[in-house]
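Researcher: Please translate sequence to structure tokens.
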Amino acid sequence: MVGILCVCLSFQIQFVTPDRYQVTHGVEIQGGIQRVRFSDDDRLIVEARRPFTVAEPSVEVIFEATSPTETPQDLGVEVEAMCTGSPAIQRIEYYNFTTQTWEVVDERNAPDFDQVISTHGRAPAPDYVEDGTRKMRIKVGYHDRGVTFLSWSGQYDRILWGVVP
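Model: Translation complete:
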């Protein structure tokens, strides 16, 4: 959140944790929404499954939260997560409710230890908030780039939105 805090120091930031999540690729081994609300090493763990196509992730989770406002001045997300398979790519995407598309905001080699990644969307902040419901949505996935063993996982420790109303 350091990057987000630097941008927004003079504003009142409201921090928001996920309301719900959905595993879209992989198999949930250890779960519960409480596991991603705190940085405490009590993780949501999703075991990888071979995707049907090369472009799909082996592990992917969509997280949703409720914004304190429909029209934020600024918005960012901090993801604390890791992957037990290597080589793999970690990809973080925001859902743009205006264009109805996913936007990649960060892609890197997947960390093999809890690493905090601060992200920021490229579109205006209100585009990432659904009108009427104030829902915000991101997905964090792990893409297999040659992992040689079968039992590996994506592990999510904390997901935190920073919203400037």
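Researcher: Any highlights?
Model: The mean pLDDT is 93.
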